[in-house]
Design a protein that fits this description.
single chain, mainly alpha, 4 helices, 72 residues
Length: 72
């Protein structure tokens, strides 16, 4: 899928560091598995709405928490 040495290095690195759940499933070709994972990741990064059932909110912490009032 990739031919750029930088991309190959990225894929090789990812193939060498599969997550426990990815290792549990197993793979006949960890390099191809890593390549597919990174391709999907790049797609999602380029289009946050690309993943099914994904909703990405971009808010500041001030918009997400209710401040706690302390007695003076």
């Amino acid at each position: 899928m990739t031919s750029d040495p930088v991309d190959d290095g990225r894929v090789d690195s990812r193939a060498g560091h599969l997550l426990p759940e990815e290792l549990a499933v197993g793979s006949d070709d960890p390099h191809a598995q890593a390549e597919a994972i990174l391709a999907e990741s790049d797609l999602r990064e380029g289009d946050p709405g690309a993943a099914p059932d994904t909703f990405l909110e971009r808010r500041t912490s001030g918009q997400t928490v209710t401040p706690i009032e302390t007695p003076d």
